[in-house]
C-alpha cells in the first residue's frame, strides 16, 4: 500500500507542479521557444485546453490552469482521505488542497532558486534553462536585491528568499498541525 500511496503522491505533485510552472511562465512572460517552456506547455495542454474554452482568462491570468491545478491539489487530498479513512470530507479536502497548492508554489520556487544557485557555480556561458530560471525568480528576488546589496560580489538575495520561504512554510504548517498525517 505504501508504494501505491507514493506513486499517487508523485503523480499528483508532478501534475500540480507542471500546472503551476505553466501559469508562472505566462506571468513572467518567459520565452515560450525555450525547450523547458515548450515541454511544460505540451505536457499540460491536454489538461488545460478543454477548460480554457469554458473558463476565460482574467487580466492576463490563466484562470483555467489555476482552476485545474487547484482541482488536482484538492483531488489529491480526497484520494488520500478515501484511502486512509474510507470517509471523505470535501470541505476539509478543499482547505488542505488550497494550502497544499500554496505550499507547492513555495517549494517550487525554493527548488528553482537552489538549482539556479548551483548552476551559477558550474555553468559557463549561455544556458537556456538558466535563462528561464532567472526569468521565473527575478520578480521575487528583485525587491530583495533593492534592500540587500551585493556584498563582496556575492548576491545574498537568494539566501534571504530561502529564509522568507521557510517562514511562510512554518506558518502554513502551523495552519495544519498534522500536515503529513492524512
From TrEMBL:
It comes from the Bacteria. The keyword Cell inner membrane does not apply. Coiled coil: none annotated. Keywords: Membrane, Transmembrane, Transmembrane helix. The chain crosses the membrane at residues 6-25, 61-80, 100-126, 147-172. GO terms for cellular component: membrane. Belongs to the YggT family. This is YggT family protein. The lineage of its organism: Bacteria, Pseudomonadati, Pseudomonadota, Gammaproteobacteria, Alteromonadales.
